[in-house]
Each structure stands twice: as C-alpha cells, then as structure tokens.
Amino acid sequence: MGQSDKQGSMESVKEGVRIMILYHATTPRKIERYLNTRAILAPVRGFDTLEAAEFWGRKTLRSKIVKFESDRVYKLPDHHNAYGRAFWAEENISEYEIMENRFFK
Questions:
Q1: How far apart are CA 36 and CA 30, in angstroms?
Q2: From first to last of its 105 residues, what are the pLDDT tens digits of the chain?
Q3: Under 8 Å CB-to-CB from 46, ≥6 apart: which residues?
Q4: Is residue 94 situated within a structural domain?
C-alpha cells in the first residue's frame, strides 16, 4: 500500500503524485453526517499515524477513526502529539474507511 517513514506515517505514490494516508478522529454523530453528505467537507484534519489519532480521540472523546488518503495536505502548526504529526487536507473526502478507536473506553 505505502511506505512508512521513521515516525510510522504512510505515504504512497500514484501516477507520480505523493498521496498521504491520514487518520481523522470523530464522533458517531459526525459519522452520520459524513454518510448523509457522502463526504467529509474540507478542511479535514488528521494525523499521520493511527496511534496519534487514537490518542487524540481518547483525549477529546471521539470514538471513531476515519482513514483516508489525500494529495493536498498541509502540516498544522499545532495538534501534534508524541505519536504523530497533524495535517489538514484541502479537499472534500468522499472515499474513507471508518474504524473504532481501540483506546476509547
């Protein structure tokens, strides 16, 4: 799927374009909105590792994680944690995978 760097972030290259895999922490209520609108509307914040998103989700009471890919990402100046870096995607995300936050209890 992709290549991991030293911090565990995932990237892949499709047709010469660098694609970054990000993980977005959210709530069940927002998941319903994403399903109804058929997209997560831009800007979409996410982390470059699953562990970072799960940590943030536990801290902010978000029990769902959405995994998505984007080639239009920018590093955020804050929101980083010990497990990964924070980014935002400047596009609506219509293809994604919904997962449970393993550390939300």
A1: 10
A2: 344 444 455 655 556 568 999 999 999 999 999 999 999 999 999 999 999 999 999 999 999 999 999 999 999 988 789 999 999 999 999 999 999 999 876
A3: 22, 23, 24, 53, 66, 68, 86, 87, 88, 89
A4: yes
Cα separation of the two ends of the chain: 30
User: Which pair of structure tokens corresponds to residue 30?
Assistant: 């927002």
- Tally of structural domains, the chain: 1
Q: What six digits make up the tokens of 41?
A: 């509307």
| Residue 68 belongs to domain with CATH number | 3.20.170
Asked whether residue 83 is assigned to any structural domain, the reply reads yes
The SS3 of residue 32 is helix
Query: Has residue 79 been placed in a domain?
Result: yes
Q: Report if residue 105 sits inside a domain.
A: no
Considering the entire predicted model, what is its pTM? 0.84
Report the DSSP beta bridge partners of residue 84. 81
